[in-house]
Amino acid sequence: MAVVAQPKENPWEVALRQFHRAADNLPLKRGIREFLAYPHRELTVNFPVQMDDGSVRMFTGYRVHHSTVLGPTKGGIRYSLRVDLDEVRALAMLMSWKCALMHLPYGGAKGGVACDPGQLSRGELEHLTRRYATEISIIIAPDGDIPAPDVGTNDQIMAWIMDTYSMHRGHSVPAVVTGKPISIGGSAGRREATGRGVMIVAREAARIHGIPFAGSRVVVQGFGNVGSVAAYLMHDQGCRIVAVSDVSGGIYNPAGLDPRAALRHMQQTGRVAGLPGAESVSNDELLELPCDFLVPAAIEGQITQANAARIQAKIVVEGANGPTTPEADEILADRGILLVPDILANAGGVTVSYFEWVQDLQALFWSEDEINERLERIMVHAFNGVVELAREREVELRTAALIYAVKRVADALLIRGIYP
Ligand code: NAD
């Protein structure tokens, strides 16, 4: 049985350390810095779900709003056994910086339920989702806080949340969540948006690093929404996808894998392992394979002090949120490995979520080409801005991205003032 990579650090402590590193580079007044280090509001809900066998089980869920300074809050909902308040806090803070960096009119939020969605029947998943949606409906709203999918959730779960919220209101409110099916107000291009953004910044990183994108070797950890789409879109650009993995382990072929065949295999068998023509590797081994691009696209805390010295990639593109610890950041930087940070690399998802929300509010929908063109422009612009600031300040891309984002939120906060 393959070894499952486990996060090794508290994600909230990591998020705070990253924030303070950026804040050290900004002339922030002490109170402002402290304000931004706190989540604005945190909701914990314990709720019952009737299971298929008639029993009742209690579940715990969360919704955290980190910052409401730049607008309504935005952020995904995660279903995983590892969900706890510190993980949700960390992810909410990252969303504040991500939205600020991308110039989206949003603050940051995140939610989650501690559960293993793979162990629940469809009916149980629907009951859990509708009850959780009802519990958090006191703090979500199309003009207040707009959830989206994340690890363990998908467009069907967004549809149930949208329906539940709408039933309570007595009319349809499509703009209360993004990442919905297109038939009920979802956006063309949203499903692929995060992976597409990863592909775009990987291509731009190859350009500034002076390596040809076509023919480059790519390793992807996590073969869900982000990882699988990034893999096949990079494959379409001529990259060689040499290894991919899911929670139960990975597959490797130095000559290259067909990511769409891996996706079909996963849809049929529930895992990538066993794809003909590939050898198996553990998630830990996969991270250390020889490659040009390493795309961690699973969960937090995967590249750490323990393995950073053995990473062989030239460029790390963070599809996941928080996959690299601050200690590992330093080791990678010392070794000349370029890292494109999460708040930039995976921002394609929230950017097209923003497009979806705008389309829902206007009840006027755009074509997929229009969505992809706008996404391309915004991603390239953000990437170039971060690279320029990194050169100017002589810092790594993560610190530059955070400096830019934190400054935007801090400036807005100063203009709004401290109420009352
Ligand atoms: P997903 O549930 O669709 O896929 C997650 C993948 O990671 C699966 O293949 C799963 O098997 C694998 N995985 C889970 N735990 C693992 C572990 N311990 N070790 C190795 N692999 C593991 O989730 P997703 O939506 O693709 O999200 C992946 C990452 O990208 C998360 O960090 C998420 O916060 C981030 N992200 C997602 C979006 C989005 O639009 N979905 C946007 C921005 C960032």
From TrEMBL:
Alphabetized UniProt keyword annotations: NAD, Nucleotide-binding, Oxidoreductase
Annotated InterPro entries: Aminoacid_DH-like_N_sf (IPR046346), Glu/Leu/Phe/Val/Trp_DH (IPR006095), Glu/Leu/Phe/Val/Trp_DH_C (IPR006096), Glu/Leu/Phe/Val/Trp_DH_dimer (IPR006097), Glu/Leu/Phe/Val_DH_AS (IPR033524), Glu_DH (IPR014362), NAD(P)-bd_dom_sf (IPR036291), NAD_bind_Glu_DH (IPR033922)
GO biological process, one term: L-glutamate catabolic process
Binding annotation for NAD(+): T194, N225
Keyword NAD among UniProt keywords: yes
Transmembrane regions listed in the UniProt entry: none
Glutamate/phenylalanine/leucine/valine/L-tryptophan dehydrogenase C-terminal domain residues: 187-417
Keyword field contains Nucleotide-binding: yes
Active site feature: K110 (proton donor)
Record-listed substrate binding positions: K74, K98, S353
Residue numbers marked as site, Important for catalysis: D150
GO molecular function: glutamate dehydrogenase (NAD+) activity; nucleotide binding
Homology family: Belongs to the Glu/Leu/Phe/Val dehydrogenases family.
Protein known as: Glutamate dehydrogenase
Species this protein is from: Candidatus Segetimicrobium genomatis
